[in-house]
Amino acid sequence: MSNLYSSILAVRDLKMYFPVRRGVMSRTVGYVYAVDGVTFSMDKKEILGLVGESGCSKTTLARTILMLEKPVSGQVLFDGKDLFKLRRRELAGLRKRLQIIFQDPTASLNPRMNILDILTEGLLQYGMVEGDRETHARKLLAEVGLDGDVIYRYPHEFSGGQRQRISIARAISLRPDFIVCDEPVSALDVSVQAQIINLLLDLRERYDLSYLFISHDLSVVGYIADRIAVMYLGRMVEVGPAGDVVEDPLHPYSQALLSAATAPGVYRKKRIILSGETPSPVAPPPGCVFHPRCPKSMPVCRKEVPRETVSGKRRVWCHLC
Fold it and tell me: Which of 35, 69, 136, 250 has its CA 20 to 30 A from that of 120?
């Protein structure tokens, strides 16, 4: 585990709750415990793969890190600075260093703007245009493998893979240090996925980028990530080197998740079928949040929240470890 104060990004006990309101007066009757005490850190040039079932709040965690959501408590330290305590002017200077690539480029690219305007909007805001806009935009497109002559076309005129390349060009335009990749290849064909993954790896080497890579595809995460973090119901359950987590998952949820993987080279033993449904984040179970579905559940799991167990570079939250 990286030192929380020397890492490029350090998240400490982050909590993000959404109020549940009902009635004519919209009274708060409860909370959705979306992110509940998450702690991890990342080094420069590291790729951390974040995996888990739909609804486990992977995207909410990423949005909170990028300050698109205001947390209930906790810290997000970027280059040692607590982002939630910075003044507006200080924060504006740091925002360009944190970017995001969304899952659906069709929804994230403004259909009323041509590619030139999309790629240079942020550059104009921060005064970072090199030369004239057209030349700078063409250079950005060349970096992601697109012809610079398309700068006056609109997003709907491109294929899904091309639109995602444009999204990547926009993300790197401000020369960030950290990028959230929110399932950037899940909507693409397999052949195009490979091209985008290789592009992201090339850009990491070129610009010393760090990625928080969110995905459901364990084969993709196992290929691109240096470490893997497994998330369940708003909490981390296991974090460790990608090869170790894929080949020998320690947490029962990680074991079940990886047993369902169908891609070659991914952990495979007996398929583990979890019983029941994922509990509601409005009323998470006491103790270990995974115990209602865990095939190895013990009485202590229903009473006590598991403490973090550190073994080498592995971190696990389980009473069995």
Answer: 69
